[in-house]
Structure formats: structure tokens, C-alpha cells
Design brief:
CATH architecture of the largest domain in chain A: Alpha-Beta Complex
Strand order of the largest sheet of chain A: 9-11-8-12-10-13-14
CATH class of the largest domain in chain A: Alpha Beta
Number of strands of chain A: 14
Structural class of chain A: alpha+beta
Largest interface: A-B, 77 and 77 residues
Number of domains of chain A: 2
Distance between the termini of chain A: 24 Å
Oligomer: homodimer
């Protein structure tokens, strides 16, 4: 490993995993941590427990702010394990001189988003550090959810499973990038930042239990699919043309040489479901505002186990690898 | 409230409470949060849940480091509610360029301290931010403990209760201050940084249930006693001469005009116990290395409800107020 920590090690991709496995897992390993995915399953499978720190810049962006993001990020991690978000802790690190009015706006945003999840902040912590020790505000949220359906896991994908994406991808990464660089776009791009529990609940209520679910945050859709292929020893084949991407996100990608599949999302998730449920899942997801583009994008096969294959509209195939390099720092 | 956040608002004293109540509590209030003390009691009283972010500088100090501190801080909050630490999340924010070797040293320290508590890290998060966005490393730990004895609370103190301090006070604040300023002392001062669960367990095992327990972190002993006096509508009278303070800490206080009662501790706690148990509690605490100075320092009375009274060795009395002002930033 490098002698010093690099930005790439925080990218949600290859280097990030190496840091986590070689440093944190090596020393702290235990059965629960080993099995943990978006959240750890504790208390004999009854509860899910997760944490996330947020360092996003700018703190206010089109479609959300660091407060909304901090609630969505942690609650979504619980929802992806089939757990209903219940209790949250909120820990805020403030830079001396941070505007009280901005803080209040962030706290209001937290309140609003908690309501979407039916969750509560039950404990908190506030630190103020001298000017220059932190860039404005960092927030940590940790959450506990009640597992409603056990066994949803990256390792539970079966041959023939349909792969579904809940909406058009790449909006969060594109919105943050545009906001940070002050890029003028013909049509405004807003982050997809949203709470996913309402959608998960709607699926569970009609008896649909996805085999795997994962919100495509840092590292985007590419990171999730690669993790799934690896964990389930399966090949995931995706039709490039079926992946929903908005025109604006496509434009930003072309302009800057990004791949939409590697851009971060904060309210977009992937599902691996029984093929017989696929149409129904797509229909239910599309009923939620913003998710009109939900699509079945591919399926699990045995052709190249542990690999993700992109099928182009012209019949060619290529592997979609785990993202590497810096991507966008401070995306979340 | 001020238009911008001040260092004093992170002091664990008066201004800190105002910020928390006027901003966070006002918007996020709910019964569980309202009743939360060092940790929230959730899941029908079965579990305790807490969070803490650590920004201490320097990150390595005499008697500990940010990793040890991050485990002690969160596990101690659980222990103070009579809960056995079980599950912890670990979220690390790293500055680009941070030395991998230092990170490894911190992770080892986390591992070692977790063992003291019999707790495990079950989930984590790693963020890397560009140079200048954070000062080296900040760590958040959130923890879940199993409540072994219900009802231990700042509001549970009764007239006649003995007030006990588990060891000599002020070491953490003094050690950090000396480390930061490069002060040369005749005898080295080490932080009291330690896990408190083993001591709490020893008390519970012989059937002693303290009415209240609290580790005296930011704001020190003065902050805890004032909170207790307020919460239990009682007067806490303390004999100044009975408070254990080491010679070195006393020296630093005299040199710099600090009050030892307002200095931070990270492995020192206060207990309010039935007077009949007081001697036994003192004896049990003194059996733990480092706690040889455990002392009965005062009692709860009805003389000045909601006030803390310091009785000098010459028979005079004065109020000990909640700390105000900047104190020491980045103490934890």
C-alpha cells in the first residue's frame, strides 16, 4: 500500500476497497463485519446498523444539501438490507465562523428527510474546530433499522435474475460537478438525492423480496454490479442501450470524458429480482415521482462468472470494470 | 444566537448547550432524544445508542491517541447508562497525504481498546478529502450497548446521595494542552483516557446500582455536576479539598489559570450512589490501576437546589458554575 493516503482511496472503487480490506478489515475483522454489506446485521438478525460521514462540497447543491444527503445516505443503507430506518444519531463537526443560518437550513432539511423515512434522531454530538481545521461542515449519521425481510444480499443473486435500475443514473455526480465548477448547462441538472425506503416498502408490501438491492453511491452503478458479480460468483450482463441516462448527464459525460455508470447517485438503486417479478417491480418503481425511467437493464448469467458485461446496441460486448482513480472527491 | 458558530459553542459548557437546544433540539425533538443523556435508550429500554466525533489535536498524545479515544468516548457513553458496549461503527475522514503508518497505528489502538470493552466494529466508512479540507484525521464512532440495569439517570439523584469521583481529575485536558503547546514539565502528565465498562461491570456484579453516572469529558467535573443538579433539582455540595488532583495537573492549572474541575477527562467518571454503598464503591474503584485516588467528594443536599456548591477547606462556600468560554478546542 502507498505510504500516504490518496484521494483515489476514497473513490468507492478499487483503491478504496484495498484500503478497507488491508487496513481496517485486517485488524478489526469479525464475523458480523465480514458479512456486513451496506449495513451490518446484528442482534440475531433483528436489526441493521450502519454509519456514513458526509463531506460533500458544495454543501448546498441542486436537489439537496449535506443535511438531506446525510439522512438519505444512512437510511438508504438500511433500506437496501430490507430494514426500516428507525433510529439515527447525528454528529456535526463545524468550522468556527460557519453561518448559523446555513446550519439551521441544514437541520430543517434533516428533519424533513427523516419524516420520509419515519425515523428519528435520538442522540447527537456537536464539535466546533478552529478556522482551517475543517472545510465548513462535516456530518456523520449512524442508523439502526428493523429488518423486515432477512437475507437480501449481494451474494444472493441467482442465474436468470433480472437486473433493474430504479431511475436514470449519474445525476448526483453530475450535479455536484456542475455546481462545483460553475458549469453553465442548457437545462439544469438536479441530484437524485432521495430516500429509498418508501420504494422498498412498496415492494415488500406486495410480497416482492429482491435477492439483492444496493444504492449506487460512490463508484456508481459500475461499482455495485462488480461487487455483486464477485459476491455471487455470477456474470451480470447489461444492455448499454437500456440504461436510463438523461440527456444532460450524457452531455456532461461526453464533455468531460466520464462514464455515466461510474458517476455517483444518492437516490438510485439497483435490484436483482426473480425474472417473473421484473415487470411488476419496474411498474411499482415508476409510480414514484422521479423514477419514471426505472428499467430492466440486464440479467445474471453464467457466461463470465465474477465479471460485468456491457452489451452495446451493435451486438459487441465489453467488460465494465470496477472504477479506479480519483473520480470526484467530496461527492458525498 | 450569534450569526456564526463560535469555538465556545463546542466547549461542553453553557454555549454548547444553547446551540444544541436552540438549534438541534428545537427542530429534531422527540421523546427519545429529549430523554437521552450520554446515550439514547431505545428498543423498549433494551439498548443504548450513542455517537461521538473526534477531532483531537495532536492525534497522538501522552496516554493515548485519536483511535483509543474514539473507542473510549463512545463505549464510555454507553457504560454510563449501565449498558454493556456491544457493536460499534467506525467512520474515518482522512486528509489526502495522511501517513498510512499513522493510520495503521490508530487502527491497532482501536482494536486493543475494543477488547477492553468486549465490543466489535461491525460497519464502517472511509472518506478521503483533498489537502486542506480537514486537519489530518477525524473519526466518528457510534455504538450500541445492551442495557444491563435500567434507570441510571442524571435525574435520579436523591438527597443524601454520596458523590464519588473515580480518580484524579483533569489529566486529559492537561496532557493535550501540554502536548499541543510543547510545555516542558518536571513530571510527565499522561491522559486518563480509558474504558470505563470494566469498572461499571464490577459495581453491577456486586449488586451496586449507582443512581447516576457520567464521564467528565468536555466541560469537566463542573459540567457534569451542574447538569446533575439541574436535572435532579438538587444541590450538590463538594469538598474542594477532597477532589483528587495530581500535583502536575495542579501545577498546569496554576500556571495557566485553569480550574481543574473544568478540564476535560476521558477515563474519569462521577457517580451518585446510596450513601450506604459509598465506601464499597470507593474500594472497588481503587482496585483498578490508575484509580487509586477514587474519592467520596461530597453529597446531594437540599440547600441550594439546582446549584453546585464548593466547600473550601476553610469553611467558606462558593458556587461552581457551568463552564463558559472557549476552554480548549479540539480536546476530543
Amino acid at each position: 500500500m502507498d505510504k500516504t493516503v490518496t484521494l483515489a482511496q476514497g473513490n468507492g472503487g478499487e483503491e478504496n476497497r484495498t484500503l478497507i480490506s488491508e487496513l481496517f478489515f485486517r485488524h478489526l475483522k469479525n464475523d458480523t463485519l465480514q458479512k456486513a454489506e451496506d449495513a451490518a446485521i446484528i442482534d440475531d438478525g433483528r436489526l441493521a446498523f450502519t454509519t456514513d460521514s458526509f463531506t460533500v462540497s458544495p454543501i448546498f447543491f441542486a436537489g439537496g444539501d449535506i443535511g438531506k444527503l446525510a439522512v438519505c445516505g444512512t437510511c438508504n443503507d438500511l433500506a437496501m438490507m430490507g430494514a426500516q430506518p428507525k433510529y439515527m444519531t447525528l454528529s456535526v463537526i463545524l468550522e468556527e465562523g460557519f453561518e448559523t443560518r446555513s446550519l439551521e437550513r441544514i437541520v430543517r432539511s434533516i428533519k424533513k428527510e427523516l419524516a420520509q423515512n419515519g425515523a428519528q434522531v435520538v442522540a447527537g454530538d456537536t464539535k466546533v474546530v478552529p478556522k482551517g481545521s475543517v472545510d465548513r461542515i462535516f456530518i456523520n449519521t449512524s442508523g439502526i433499522g428493523e429488518v423486515r425481510v432477512p437475507g437480501i444480499s449481494a451474494s444472493g443473486i441467482e442465474e436468470g435474475d433480472a437486473i433493474i435500475v430504479s431511475r436514470d443514473i449519474g445525476r448526483h455526480g453530475a450535479a455536484i460537478f456542475a455546481g462545483r465548477e460553475g458549469i453553465e448547462l442548457e437545462s439544469e441538472i438536479t441530484s437524485d438525492c432521495a430516500s429509498l425506503w418508501p420504494m422498498v416498502e412498496a415492494l415488500l408490501e406486495v410480497g416482492i423480496v429482491p435477492h439483492a438491492m444496493r444504492d449506487a453511491t460512490r463508484g456508481g452503478m459500475a461499482a455495485v454490479l462488480n461487487e455483486w458479480a464477485e459476491a455471487s460468483s455470477i456474470c451480470i450482463e447489461v444492455d448499454e442501450g437500456a440504461i436510463p441516462v438523461s440527456e444532460t448527464v450524457n452531455g456532461i459525460c461526453e464533455m468531460l470524458g466520464f462514464e455515466a455508470t461510474m458517476l455517483a447517485n444518492e437516490g438510485t438503486f439497483l435490484l436483482a429480482v426473480d425474472p417473473d417479478d421484473a415487470q411488476k417491480v419496474q411498474r411499482i418503481l415508476r409510480d414514484f415521482p422521479g423514477n419514471e425511467a426505472a428499467a430492466i437493464v440486464g440479467e445474471a448469467t453464467m457466461s463470465y462468472p465474477k465479471k460485468v458485461v456491457l452489451r452495446s446496441e451493435w451486438g459487441t460486448k465489453r467488460f465494465l470494470d470496477l472504477p479506479t482513480g480519483e473520480l470526484l472527491p467530496r461527492i458525498c
